[in-house]
């Protein structure tokens, strides 16, 4: 099992100890974590970041980037080049957002209605064209993926939206976020069955239950260490490994109270789940 964590979490762990970033990197290694996932904005702001991580003994699992199509070709080329130079396996694209209220809620509740709406949308057409360009530029050397992004304005917030892009872009990979389908009240295990052959990257996120909160599979969205929530993370990890997934499992828990504890606990839980 290859473990990664968001770079942000390493910095937060270092800050909690009153230390510089390098102590956070050393802490990841002490927890058996070998890589980090970066944001494209971090890399463009700090061109030496990937080199410092390499010197610290960490790999780059993937680089994520936000887009607003159309007109992003140069940024896509930069994104792919930075990822290739860093030795990352690929890039994840957040292809943009609708305006709040632009898509009626009932559209996302029905795959046929969602696909029909997306077929008529200039925004999703531009997103699709932009990601197709990225896939062509990557030419199989790096994966290009999207995730189940937890925002009511995201076109990939649930299985209905994701499937529209997957059907139209055969070369598009899926970065499964185990915690984000809960945002839309959906079952992450059902998503694994639906998109399993397209998974190239995994963000391992758990969710904590909140009293009185129940919408479908969503019992709350409280940030917790992996293994401390209600989601079937161990079952998902086991299924992925049995079906031959050999990519990174990237720990994600933005907003936890104690990043150092959560990183260590998450890594221990995932190694136990892999046995």
Describe this structure in words.
With 275 residues, this protein is α/β, with parallel strands linked by helices. The protein has a single domain, classed as TIM Barrel. It is 44% helix and 18% strand. The chain contains twelve helices and ten strands. It has helices at 7-16, 21-30, 40-45, 49-55, 73-86, 105-108, 111-120, 122-138, 159-168, 188-195, 233-242, 259-274; strands at 2-6, 35-39, 59-66, 90-94, 143-147, 173-177, 199-204, 206-208, 222-224, 248-251. It has an eight-stranded parallel β-barrel with strand order 1-2-3-4-5-6-7-10, surrounded by six helices. Helix 9 links the parallel strand 5 and strand 6. Helix 5 (73-86) runs parallel beside helix 8, helix 7 (111-120) packs across helix 9 and helix 11 (233-242) crosses helix 12 (259-274). The longest helix is centred in the middle third of the chain and has 17 residues, at 122-138. The termini are close together. The model has no long low-confidence stretch (mean pLDDT 97).
Q: And the CATH topology?
A: TIM Barrel
Radius of gyration: 18 Å
| Strand percent estimate | 15-25%
Any idea what the CATH superfamily is called?
Divalent-metal-dependent TIM barrel enzymes
* CATH architecture level-2 label: Alpha-Beta Barrel
Order of helices and strands: EHHEHHEHEHHHEHEHEEEHEH
Helix-strand category: alpha/beta
Overall structural domain count? 1
Low-confidence stretches: none
Tell me the number of strands.
10
Side-by-side strand order of the widest sheet: 1-2-3-4-5-6-7-10
Report the total helices: 12
- The pLDDT mean sits at 97
User: What about the largest sheet?
Assistant: 8 strands, parallel, barrel
Instruction: Please identify the top-level CATH class.
Output: Alpha Beta
The rough form would be described as globular
* Straight-line distance between termini: 10 Å
Q: How much helix, percentage-wise, in residues? A: 40-55%
């Amino acid at each position: 099992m290859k473990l990664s964590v968001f770079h942000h979490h390493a910095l937060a762990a270092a800050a909690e100890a009153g230390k510089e970033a390098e102590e956070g990197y050393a802490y990841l290694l002490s927890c058996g974590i070998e890589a980090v996932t970066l944001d494209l904005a971090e890399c463009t702001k700090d061109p030496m970041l990937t080199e410092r991580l390499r010197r610290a003994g960490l790999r780059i699992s993937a680089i994520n980037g936000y887009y607003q199509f159309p007109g992003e070709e140069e940024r896509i080329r930069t994104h792919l080049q930075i990822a290739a130079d860093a030795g990352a396996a690929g890039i994840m694209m957040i292809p943009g957002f609708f305006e709040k209220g632009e898509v009626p809620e009932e559209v996302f509740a029905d795959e046929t209605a969602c696909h029909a709406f997306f077929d008529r949308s200039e925004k999703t057409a531009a997103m699709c064209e932009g990601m197709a360009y990225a896939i062509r530029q990557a030419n199989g050397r790096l994966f290009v993926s999207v995730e189940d992004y937890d925002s009511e304005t995201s076109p990939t917030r649930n299985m209905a939206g994701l499937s529209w892009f997957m059907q139209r872009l055969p070369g598009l990979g899926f970065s499964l976020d185990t915690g984000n389908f809960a945002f839309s009240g959906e079952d992450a295990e059902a998503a694994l069955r639906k998109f399993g052959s397209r998974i190239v990257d995994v963000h391992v996120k758990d969710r904590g239950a909140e009293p009185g909160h129940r919408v479908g599979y969503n019992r709350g969205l409280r940030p917790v260490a992996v293994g401390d929530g209600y989601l079937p993370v161990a079952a998902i990890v086991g299924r992925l490994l049995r079906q031959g997934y050999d990519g990174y499992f990237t720990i994600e828990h933005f907003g936890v109270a104690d990043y150092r504890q959560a990183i260590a606990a998450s890594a221990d839980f995932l190694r136990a789940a892999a046995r």
